[in-house]
Design goal:
- The relative contact order is 0.17.
- The chain is built from 3 helices and 7 strands; from the N terminus they run E-E-H-H-E-E-E-E-H-E.
- 29% of the residues lie in helices and 37% in strands.
- The chain has one domain.
- A hairpin with a 4-residue loop joins strand 3 and strand 4.
- The chain starts with a strand and ends with a strand.
- The longest helix has 11 residues.
C-alpha cells in the first residue's frame, strides 16, 4: 500500500523491506535498541525503514542505522504523525 502525501511517499510493503533490509542488520538494530522489531514499510522521504515493536509502537530507522525515530504507540497514531512530519522522539544511534 502506498500513501502519497505532499510529494512524499509512505509505502507499506513487507516483501520490499525484507529484501532490502537483511537479517544481520535486523539483529544489529535489535541489539542496539533492545527492542524486538518487525519491519512494516518504508518512507521514501529521507530513506527510512518503518518498524513496529512487540507492543505495536512504530519507529523509523534511517537506512544507515544512525537514527531512530519514534512516531507513535500504534500504527494509526504513527501514520498521522508521519503524514504531519511530527516525530515524537528522535535518538541518534
Amino acid at each position: 500500500m502506498k500513501i502519497p502525501h505532499k510529494g512524499y511517499m509512505v509505502e507499506f510493503n513487507l516483501s520490499d523491506i525484507t529484501r532490502y533490509f537483511p537479517k544481520h542488520e535486523m539483529i544489529y538494530l535489535q541489539d542496539l535498541t533492545q527492542l524486538e522489531l518487525y519491519p512494516v514499510g518504508t518512507m521514501q522521504s529521507g530513506w527510512y525503514n518503518l518498524f513496529a515493536d512487540e507492543n505495536a509502537a512504530v519507529y523509523a530507522i534511517h537506512i544507515e542505522a544512525d537514527e531512530l525515530i519514534y512516531y507513535g504507540e500504534n500504527p494509526f497514531v504513527a501514520l498521522e504523525n508521519i503524514l504531519k512530519n511530527n516525530p515524537l522522539e528522535t535518538k541518534r544511534l
